[in-house]
Amino acid sequence: MFLSSVDFLNKFAINFAAITGEAYCTSSRMSYELLKRNLLSAAFVETISSRLLVSVILVVSALYAIVVCAIANAATDLGVYVYFLGLSAWLLLLVVLGYFAHVLDNVINSIYICYAIDMDRGDVSKPEVHEVYAHLPLSRSRSQSSSLISRTPPLIV
């Protein structure tokens, strides 16, 4: 019961409120219904995009730290302090890339809400966005089962 009452509170509600100008609680309910009505999964996009971005950040920052350690070890005679330099470089790049990944994650979520609004209206405002999101497994299953589901009226913003 608790999970079903909190299920509509997700990070898409803030993006929906920014797009439509509705209040937060209204936006959270409307975004949840919008995604549910169009058989789109908020959890799928949140999980995939966030985990993919975090994985890329960790790999890139670790490779950067290794390169910094190798160059510092070859160019200077810092001894053990070269590892502190590598650790500092890793942490600094981790913070910088984390900021950019957070911004990119918000952009992805905003585009996903816009895609859901387009699907609800039956409109295609950006064909290249629809081509990308059509490759999601849940979007493909929507086209196969949309005739079986009775749709609620579309969202008019």
Protein traits:
single chain, 157 residues, 7 helices
Question: What can you tell me about this protein's structure?
Answer:
76% of the residues lie in helices and 0% in strands. It is elongated. The protein contains 7 helices and no strands. Helix 2 (12-20) packs across helix 3 and helix 3 packs across helix 5. The protein is mainly α and 157 residues long. The protein has helices at residues 2-6, 12-20, 24-37, 42-75, 81-121, 127-133, 137-145. The model is unreliable at 140-152 (pLDDT under 50).
Distance between the termini: 30 Å
Q: What percentage of amino acids are in beta strands?
A: under 5%
Overall helicity? over 70%
Arithmetic mean pLDDT: 80
Rg calculated over all Cα atoms? 21 Å
Coarse shape: elongated
Low-confidence stretches: 140-152
Give the structural class.
Answer: mainly alpha
Mind describing the biggest β-sheet? none
How many individual β-strands? 0
In N-to-C order, the SSE pattern is HHHHHHH
Helical stretch count?
A: 7
Tell me briefly what this model is:
This protein has 7 helices and no strands. By secondary structure, it is mostly helical.
Summarize the helices and strands and which ones pair or pack:
Blueprint (H helix, E strand, L loop, with lengths): L1 H5 L5 H9 L3 H14 L4 H34 L5 H41 L5 H7 L3 H9 L12
Helix pairs in contact: 2-3, 2-5, 3-5, 4-5
